[in-house]
Amino acid sequence: MTLEVEVALIGLAGAVTGGLITGMTSLFGEWRQHRRGLHAEQRAQEAAVEAERRSRGDAAMGRAVDSLSKLLLLGPSPDPHGPIAAVGPWESARGDLVLVVDVASIDVNGDELRERLEEACRTMRLSDGPEKYAHQSETYTRSLAVRHALACIGAYRGGRPLPDRPKEYVDTLDLVSIYLEELDANSRR
Predict the structure, then answer these.
(1) What's the whole-model pTM score?
(2) Are 147 and 139 in contact (CB under 8 A)?
(3) Using CA atoms, how far apart are residues 48 and 80, in angstroms rounded to an integer?
């Protein structure tokens, strides 16, 4: 092989290598840019999902606060031995308000807050327990559950830890648990 041919081959090899390196660099750059675009698109989708979740959670807390406030304003339960015309609508109204809080708790963002709202709803639904075991009125049981639920929502909205359960409410929860166990035992007979 002549010197001119060797130089030409070396030049050709250099040009091919340079072309491959340039092509690979260009492809890698395009791939990185495409990947960045996918990541940006994914982040935008995640941000939209998070914004929707926050919006749903805020709306759910609004519904819960509205219904809890109405539960506070709901008068005492009518005499169960009185006319059914008074008891039925009152129980229906109370049940509907408790259901709104219970359903709204599904969309509440904080797990601990969701659990407290569900607990308050269970307490109001099973208020016969505290009445049976401690002669505690439905109105008092409802007031304890609602006030604690509202305090929890206020703390959550303010970015503070949820408050401890007041002693009276803890005692009521214990009575609800006993009543629930009794109902469970009776259902197995």
Answers:
(1) 0.73
(2) no
(3) 50
What pLDDT tens digit does each residue of the chain (189 aa) get?
676 666 566 665 666 566 667 766 766 667 677 677 667 777 777 766 666 777 788 898 999 999 999 999 998 888 777 666 667 788 899 999 999 999 999 999 889 999 999 999 999 999 999 999 999 999 999 999 999 999 999 999 999 999 999 999 999 999 999 999 999 988 887
Compute the distance between CA of residue 164 and CA of residue 27 in angstroms, rounded to an integer.
60
- Dmax over CA atoms of the chain, in Å, equals 120
Q: The tokens of 132 are what?
A: 């049976």
Rg (CA), the chain: 33
What are the CA-CA distances from residue 104 to residues 49, 58, 144 (Å)? 19, 10, 19
The Cα–Cα gap between 144 and 172 comes to 8
